[in-house]
Amino acid sequence: MSEGRGSSGNIIAGIASFFIPGLGQLVQGRIMAALFMVVLATAIHVFSFGLLSWVGHVIAAVHAGLYDPD
Fold first, then answer.
1. Are 55 and 18 in contact (CB under 8 A)?
2. Contact by Cβ (8 Å): 22, 61
3. Whole-angstrom Cα distance, residue 63 to residue 26?
4. If the chain, 70 residues long, is cut into consecutive pieces of 10 residues, what is the mean pLDDT of each piece?
5. How far is CA 49 from CA 18, 37, 54, 58, in A?
6. Looking at residue 67, what DSSP letter applies?
7. What is the pLDDT of residue 1?
8. Which residues contact 42 (CB under 8 A, 6 or more apart)?
9. How far is CA 22 from CA 46, 59, 67, in A?
10. Burial 25-53 (b: 16+ CB within 10 A, else e)
11. Would you kindly state where each structural domain of the chain is located, as residue ranges?
12. CA–CA separation, 42 vs 29, rounded Å?
């Protein structure tokens, strides 16, 4: 099985990041990307007064799901 874009590991990481932004990147071993996603999701939440919190979750999930190590 390939470990590139669309692999089962990326799908699991995407689902994890959907529920907790940055968790999927952390599972993939990308610490700086995980920290960035946490900060981004928090900033979106704060500046939109919680109305657009889902956007940060979706961005983190897509970013983890489309990760290609090559």
1. no
2. no
3. 12
4. 68 95 95 97 96 96 90
5. 19, 18, 12, 17
6. -
7. 35
8. 56
9. 17, 10, 13
10. bbbbebeebbebbbebbeebbeeeeeeeb
11. 8-65
12. 21
Q: Look up residue 25 and give its two tokens.
A: 């990147």
Residue 66 identity (one-letter amino acid)? L
Under 8 Å between Cβ of 53 and 41: yes
Q: How far apart are the first and last CA of the chain?
A: 15
Show the tokens assigned to 53.
């919190």
How many whole angstroms separate alpha carbon 66 and alpha carbon 49?
28
The DSSP string of 1-60 is ---STT-HHHHHHHHHHHHSTTHHHHHTT-HHHHHHHHHHHHHHHHHTTTTTHHHHHHHH
